[in-house]
Design brief:
This protein is of the alpha+beta class. It has one domain: Deoxyribonuclease I, Chain A (4-Layer Sandwich). It is built from 8 helices and 16 strands. A 6-stranded mixed beta sheet has the order 3-4-2-1-16-15, covered by helices on one side. The chain has a 6-stranded mixed beta sheet with strand order 5-8-9-10-14-11. Strands 6-7 form a two-stranded antiparallel ribbon. The chain is globular, with a radius of gyration of 19 Å.
Length: about 325
């Protein structure tokens, strides 16, 4: 039987997880298998997971099909060094990244600045962004399955019949942390607020609902799956966007927990916009993964190494996967 030895620091978060009406009351209720559904897998595997929007990592070549920035070679070199310092400061096992122009510049970052960290498994699929920025993944563990949802077409929410797609991509990655333990990540960078686009909010909420549908496909197969929605979601914790993804919109789905709720409210901000400290970057974990969160490990790092290269701060948490 899956062991539950790690509990949330925040009592309200624990109650929310236990009280989520979409979760099976027990392993036995989930599939009739009782204690036999998951054997004792022995010692847990500790992993450190992070997400960081590095802000506009472009190369020095102009892409005629995109509205990309074209920094000088020296500016690119300086940017790579600054991001390298920041990611080495994180020292995470798995890092979700946002605003990477292409695989070539990601490989430069990994090979030139991060080679000591051992990120042997790299994933990036060219997405839909008009500027060419993509979501990506660096992992010390094998990633045998990576699925792009960039071509998915879906309807809006609350009766909106307009067709939408992902502004960049929802990158679904299955990571083999151990032969008998997998981690599923949905790496995202949702539509930003944009006064010039009156549909921006509708687009973001439609994307949020689709992210949750993708997550539910995994949770339908295994309600205890080690699953996380991770990245720049471009909205606040109490927004409709977050409700749709987390399942706190009254849908009776298994609730995804925000790891940042275990830290002080004043320290949860991941960006500063016009002097306003806002949380818009997240690690949202399904109940099975929430049980494995190491007490006190969640953090938003406001070190100067991050503000030196980005307008976002990274979110990080450690898990003992069982």
């Amino acid at each position: 039987m899956r062991r539950s030895t790690t509990f949330y620091v925040a009592a309200s978060l624990a109650l929310a997880l236990l009280g989520s009406t979409g979760c099976p009351a027990s392993d036995s209720d989930a599939d009739g298998g009782g204690d036999s559904r998951r054997a004792d897998l022995g010692e847990p595997v500790r992993i450190k997971l992070a997400t960081f929007n590095v802000r506009n990592l472009f190369d020095s070549s102009d892409d005629p099909d995109k509205l990309d920035d074209v920094p000088s070679k020296s500016e690119v070199d300086a940017k790579l060094k600054a991001i390298g310092i920041a990611i080495r400061r994180l020292d995470a096992d798995i890092v979700a990244l946002q605003e990477i122009e292409n695989r070539a510049i990601l490989d430069r970052l990994n090979n030139e600045e991060l080679s000591s960290l051992g990120y042997e498994h790299v994933r990036l699929v060219e997405g839909n962004d008009v500027r060419g920025v993509d979501v990506a993944l660096l992992s010390k563990f094998p990633v045998p399955r990576a699925v792009s949802w960039k071509n998915e077409v879906f309807k809006g929410v609350d009766g909106d019949t307009q067709n939408y797609g992902f502004s960049r991509d929802c990158l679904e990655a299955t990571i083999d942390v151990a032969p008998d333990r997998k981690l599923v990540l949905l790496v995202n960078h949702l539509r930003a607020n944009d006064d010039s686009d009156p549909t921006a909010l509708k687009r973001r909420e439609a994307q949020a609902a689709q992210v949750r549908r993708i997550a539910d496909e995994t949770l339908a197969l295994d309600p205890r799956a080690n699953l996380a929605v991770i990245g720049d979601l471009n909205d606040l914790p109490n927004s409709r966007t977050l409700e749709l993804i987390r399942g706190t919109d009254g849908s009776k789905k298994p609730e995804l927990a925000d790891v940042a709720e275990t830290i002080d409210v004043a320290e949860r901000y991941t960006t500063i916009y016009r002097g306003d400290h806002r949380q818009i970057d997240y690690i949202l974990v399904a109940p099975g993964l929430a049980e494995d969160l190491v007490i006190g490990s969640a953090s938003v790092n406001h070190d100067g190494a991050f503000s030196a290269t980005s307008d976002h701060f990274p979110v990080m948490a450690t898990f003992d996967l069982r």
